[in-house]
Design goal:
The chain has about 110 residues and is an alpha+beta fold. It is built from one helix and six strands, in the order H-E-E-E-E-E-E. Helices cover about 20% and strands about 50% of the residues.
Length: about 110
């Protein structure tokens, strides 16, 4: 069976589109990790947390809290001023085209 140039062109366009859609889908991934809180900026509503990558190397996750982000301090609702730098936290974030967006942070 012979494919026409039009069929090949359509197949190439579909392959290119599927490649473009993969990064968009990856941006929807929510990541949860434990780490150490290294910075809090209440005025700009941003935090920084040092976590370990899969290979054991440290990585800093830093960005703004999204509107409606959850901040828990020892199981109770709190705010950024309640967080203590240097304490262990659990952070939940997602990557966006603008950078990291923080969805939740819990300090125990």
């Amino acid at each position: 069976m012979r494919m026409s140039y039009r069929s090949i062109g359509i197949a190439l366009v579909l392959l290119m589109l599927s490649g473009l859609l993969l990064p968009v889908h990856a941006q929807d991934k929510i990541t949860t990790q434990h780490g150490m809180l290294t910075a809090v900026d209440d005025q700009n509503q941003t935090i920084a947390v040092q976590v370990l990558k899969d290979d054991g190397q440290p990585m800093t996750v830093a960005g703004p809290l999204v509107e409606g982000a959850v901040v828990l301090i020892e199981g109770h609702t709190g705010g950024l001023p309640d967080l203590v730098v240097g304490e262990n936290v659990t952070i939940q974030w997602k990557d966006t085209p603008e950078g990291v967006s923080i969805l939740a942070i819990e300090q125990r």
